[in-house]
Every structure is written in C-alpha cells, then in structure tokens.
Amino acid sequence: MEDTRANVNNCVLGVQAGPIIVRQVIGERTKQKVLDIHVVVPERKPSIEQIIDVFVKDVEVLNVEVITDKVIVRGEFEIKAIYVADLPDQPVHAVEIKHYKWTQDIEIPGARRGMDADASVVVEFVDYDVDHHTRAYKHKYGSHDDDDCDDHGNDCDDHDHDCNDHDHDCNDHNDNCNDHHHHHRVCREFDVSVVLKITAKVLADREVTFNAGATLPTTPKG
Which of 73, 130, 138 is CA-nearest to residue 103? Predict the structure, then answer.
C-alpha cells in the first residue's frame, strides 16, 4: 500500500512572518443637529385651516469629509405637511420642501485627511408650530389667546368684512377678513422643528507585523 503521508502539506503556525493590513476604527461619535425651518404655502395653494401631519422623509447622507480631528457630514431630507384647506368644502392639500440641505461637523480626535469615514443619520424629533392667532393653532392646541376676536367682537363685523385700522387680529397681508372665520388670521406659513442624530466613524488601515515563531498560548487567560 502506497504511503501518502509524504504528500501532506502541514501548516505550522508561526513559520511564516510578515505584515498584514488591519482595518482600525480611529474614533466614532454621535451629535445632534437641531433645525428650525420656516415653511410658506405657495400662492397657487389655498390657506391652512388645520394641519393634519408634518413629517420628514428621504433623509440621507450625501458626503462625508475627514479633516484634522473632525468629520464634516452633509446630507438632505424632504419635509411634507398634510393640511385641510381653508375652503368651504375643506379639501386636503399638501405642501413640501424638497432637498433641504444640512451640514454637521463632528469632532473625532485622531482623524486626518485621507482617512476613510462612514456616517449615518436618523430623525429623532419632528414638530410644527403656527401663529397663535390662526385657526390652525386652535385645532392643534384646542384654544386661542383672549386677544383674538370672538364671534361677538366688533373688530370684524358680519356685515363688513373690511379690516379697519384698529383691528390687530386681521392678517396684515390679507385685506379682507375671512367670511366664515373672520376672527382668526389666515394661516399660510408655519415653522417646523427637526432634530437629527448623526453618527460618524473614522477608519484607517494599519500595518501589523507578526514575528516568526509566534505561537498560541497553551492555557487560556483569566
């Protein structure tokens, strides 16, 4: 019977030595980005009676740049608001801002130009606010300021829809009081607050050399 043991290539740990490239994380940090965004309803769309929902979508990182001890992260997202129009039949409309840009710097000690970096972003918080003299405010909070006109107010008369010089509750940008909601300002703008959580990681290739003759420990540590 032929002996095949001579053809076996035995692998012995530590016989060969040389450098290997190891991917190493230099640093990783997270930072919040707070944004206050003013949204105006386009002229082609009706005014707002009630805001149903405001949300952020299509959030993404576009670019990650490493400089000395810092990472610059750039990205964009889209804001969309669904609202009931201030019209007799109260149709539902939407207003949106596309490709809203943002930039955030994150300090990572040890970061240097030329190193690789990864970044991610998530939306932590979204909310909106409107002028407290509008019906949209009343729908959101269930109340309005005492300074607003009420149904018995003399500032906006049912028989006279023109705002007079002493009426502070009518919208300065609207010459006529609204026929059926004349005691509130017309709502055509609102503010959106967005909080992003951005995480950046810097990586670099490091050369590690293994010495010839190195062996595994014979007994476990600990």
Answer: 73
Q: Which of 201, 220, 214 is nearest to 20 (CA)?
A: 214
Beta bridge partners of 119: 200
Q: What pLDDT score was predicted for residue 146?
A: 46
Structure tokens belonging to residue 51 = 């805001």
Distance CA 70, CA 32 (A): 15
Per-residue model confidence (pLDDT) at position 129: 96
**Mean pLDDT per segment of 10 residues, for the chain of length 222 residues?**
55 63 93 98 96 97 98 98 95 97 98 96 97 93 57 43 43 44 76 98 86 62 56
Helices (H), 123-167: 135-141
The residue behind tokens 């990650």 is 64
Q: Please report the DSSP string for 37-104 in residue order.
A: EEEE--TTSPPEEEEEEEEEEEEEEEEEEEETTEEEEEEEEEEEEEEEESSTT--EEEEEEEEEEEEE
Contact predicate 77/59, CB 8 Å: yes
Q: Which of 74, 40, 81 is nearest to 60 (CA)?
A: 74
Nearest CA-CA partner of 129 in 197, 48, 27: 48
Each domain of the chain, given as residue ranges in start order, spans 28-144+185-204
